[in-house]
Design goal:
The protein is mostly beta strands. It contains no helices and 7 strands. The chain has a 4-stranded antiparallel β-sheet with strand order 1-2-3-7, with no helix packed on it. The radius of gyration is 13 Å and the shape is elongated. The two termini are 20 Å apart. The model has no long low-confidence stretch (mean pLDDT 93).
């Protein structure tokens, strides 16, 4: 999934597991991954190359396609 900078719409590059950087406007962001049902932060689960998420609030496994992704300026 390619994310765009909310400030200038340029592509963001990865600078860590949840960090993103815009080389065009030199902005830094943190990628928050939230539950699509309750809005709480999800825990990342990795196994055999697959990525899923766990919601502590809903007590459910969530797929990466159902999660909400939100960029917050760092």
């Amino acid at each position: 999934m390619q994310l765009l900078c909310p400030n200038c719409q340029s592509e963001l590059t990865r600078s860590g597991e949840s960090k993103r950087h815009c080389q065009a406007c030199h902005s830094d962001f943190i990628l928050n991954i939230e539950c699509n049902e309750c809005g709480e932060a999800l825990q990342r689960l990795k196994a055999c190359g697959a990525v899923n998420f766990w919601c502590d609030h809903c007590h459910e496994l969530k797929s990466k396609s159902s999660a909400n992704y939100r960029l917050v300026e760092a």
